[in-house]
Amino acid sequence: MIGAGSIGGVVARALRDGTVPGAALSGVVDPAGATDLPLVSLDELLSTSDLVVEAAGQRALAELGPQVLAAGRDLLVVSVGALADDALLDKLLSAGPGELHLSTGAIGGLDLLRAAARMAPLSRVTIETTKRAANLVQPWMSDEEAARLRTTAEPVELMRGPAREVTAAFPKSANVAASVALAVGDWDVVEAAVVADPAAELTSHVITADGPAGSYRFEIRNRPSPRTPTSSEVVPHAVLGAIAALAEPRVVFR
């Protein structure tokens, strides 16, 4: 594991405790130093692991991901939003011999979107993410904007536009927009929106798509992580599911 926060910590402890058949925790690279987990250097991790899971954020993926793949280790990416940077994606894809895998994270329906786009290009794809207003404050916001967001009594649409731009503006909240764009294979066709709602108890993602294959609408409503409300509580379990499928593939939908 790289990172042992609200996502990586849950995954690492589940692996440590033997809850994933065919997989075991070899170590954790974590600057914060989780005291109940075996901490190792990146070199040690690469010498003892078949699969490395990145759960430490976009910067960590950019800095360490190429090294993992170049060492011949497979890499499972949680911070999918970083792949809005075409240069980073190309670097990772060419860094092998390790294989690159992406976690589905907080959303579903990506397999059907990928199939529909493979049949024929989709004409329209949107993803609208709604989260509790206070959890969407960003470093680039002015003090006035941040204060207004923390005290608003009504839903506010903070941004709507190309998925690549929205992903860059909300790196901890719009990984899902990047996942949708990568699934359909076209960043330009995907429009993303982020809505702040002070009454939102659940995080919602509404995905719609239209094309020759048909029309689709998926709505996902997740509980936020108690530790890190910008992420959904289900995300580490999606990661564990991916690890289980890689460790002991049996009946797996791909």
What does this structure look like?
This protein is of the alpha/beta class and about 250 residues long. It is built from 9 helices and 8 strands. The strands form 2 sheets. It has a 5-stranded mixed β-sheet with strand order 5-6-4-7-8, with helices on one face. A 3-stranded parallel β-sheet has the order 1-2-3, with helices on both faces. The longest helix is centred in the first third of the chain and has 13 residues, at about 60-70. The chain is globular, with a radius of gyration of 18 Å.
- Hey, roughly how much beta strand do the residues contain? 15-25%
* Mean pLDDT across all amino acids: 91
Order of helices and strands: HHEHEHEHEHEHHEEEH
Q: Total number of helical segments?
A: 9
- Please tally the β strands and state the result: 8
Spans where pLDDT lies below 50 across 5 or more residues? none
DSSP helix fraction = 25-40%
In spatial order, strands of the major sheet run 5-6-4-7-8
Rough shape? globular
Tell me the distance between the termini.
Answer: 24 Å
- Give a quick account of the main beta sheet: strands, pairing sense, barrel closure: 5 strands, mixed
Topology (elements, then pairings):
Elements: H1 8-16, H2 42-48, E1 51-54, H3 58-70, E2 74-77, H4 86-93, E3 100-102, H5 110-119, E4 124-131, H6 143-151, E5 156-162, H7 163-169, H8 175-184, E6 190-196, E7 203-211, E8 214-222, H9 235-247
Parallel strand pairs: 1-2, 2-3, 4-6
Antiparallel strand pairs: 4-7, 5-6, 7-8
Helix pairs in contact: 1-9, 5-8, 7-8
